[in-house]
Design goal:
The chain is an alpha/beta fold and about 325 residues long. The protein contains ten helices and ten strands.
Length: about 325
Amino acid sequence: MTPNRFQILSLDGGGLKGLFTASFLAHWEKEQGTRVIDHFDLIAGTSTGGIIAIGLGLGFSAEQIKDLYLNKADQIFPPKHFANAKHWLAVKHSGAGLRAALQELLGERKFGESEKRLLIPAYDPAFRGVHIFKTSHHKRLQTDYKQSAVHVAMATSAAPTYLPPEVTESGLQLLDGGVWANNPIMIAVAEALGYLEKPQSEITALRIGTTEEVISLKDLQTMGGKLQMAAPVIDFMMRGQSQSASGMVQHLLGKDRFFEVNPKTAPGDFHLDKLSKELLAMGEAEWRHASSELFDRGFFDHQAAPFEPCHKLN
């Protein structure tokens, strides 16, 4: 463990564009010969980033998670979706394929089995608004750790227009955390400062995005039809939230203690529900580009202390 250092990993949402994140992290583990999670004290992940965070926390390698995208993409988002195109708010996919893929990977394991502190945002539109699943890293966190890992992953991934809400045992309908925190870096820093009472001067953070589509307001205005507009508008709004979150964290921590990996792409290059294997190469290329900077900033040197949850599963 590096003295006086608390290291955060934040993973953006982005559907099947999470293949970029998984590829980047798989190259990290292969070339460093260590597990990514062993270098971080807290991991936050939204939507596809939440799935990756949960998988890493439960001990799966980044390579195994990468294979989930490569082998299960058509199952998760079938090319022929079931939604009625006449209804622009209809979801495009049933969610059954994603649940089956997650069940195959995660089985019956619980969220509280994570070896690492986790923050996984979701959204409750009917009652309380923001909803964050948290491991039991504080004595007040007595509930979420008992949840099924698959349930948490489904909740954070229930993207409006793409997948239906995830319903809890009490009947709450949860949506994708990307509704309010597609880039969860700010909530991770707030958790470190608040619940975990870490001094601001000790916090270092890495955010990995799922690529940023460079799209202008003019581009949006030239697109016709409500159904065609839905995905670009959602992406446009998420980009604003993401930039705001990163800006606030950079202001809090300073440029020396906050680093981002999130390459820009042209409009239409990649889609949330269509797999592109180009993201594999992009993940490797970004790793090659960023690894020296990560080394210089001490990300590889930090060995996180073992996580001891306040409440444990029976």
